[in-house]
Amino acid sequence: MNFKPSLPKLLCLSLLLLLFSCSKEEFVDGVFTIHYSGDWDKGGCGWVLQQDTLHWYEPLNLPDQYKQENLELDVVYRQLEETPACSNNKIQGILYLHKIKEL
To answer: In whole angstroms, what is the distance from residue 79 CA to residue 98 CA?
Structure first.
């Protein structure tokens, strides 16, 4: 019996291997407080997430329902490699929010 894999089968197998080999550890859980830091055109950074006194983040995809001052959230997130658009030195990075739960 001579086995000749076809290109579609090889592509499908490669895609499955790639999907299942991705690390699930990219997403982490953390508690954040929401703050409005001011309008962008006035030197603010819009809505930001404060994790503690030293760690502030720019949320990539914060839904409008959570844009409330001092709201505490439990968030499953992934920190992105991109440089924050905000020039404020407090901002540590940009977060992609995967799951959000109000505390």
So the answer is: 11
Contact 100, 66 (CB under 8 A): yes
User: Closest Cα partner for 69 from 29, 103, 35?
Assistant: 35
Q: Which residue has the tokens 């929010």?
A: 97
> Taken in order 44, 50, 54, 55, is the CA torsion positive or negative?
negative
Tokens at 69, concatenated: 């001052």
For residue range 19-34, what is the model confidence (pLDDT) as tens digits?
A: 444 444 589 999 999 9
Query: Residue 72 phi/psi, 5° resolution?
Result: -95, 135
- Compute the Cα dihedral for 46, 81, 54, 61 and give only its sign: positive
The pTM of the full predicted model, rounded to 2 decimals, is 0.72
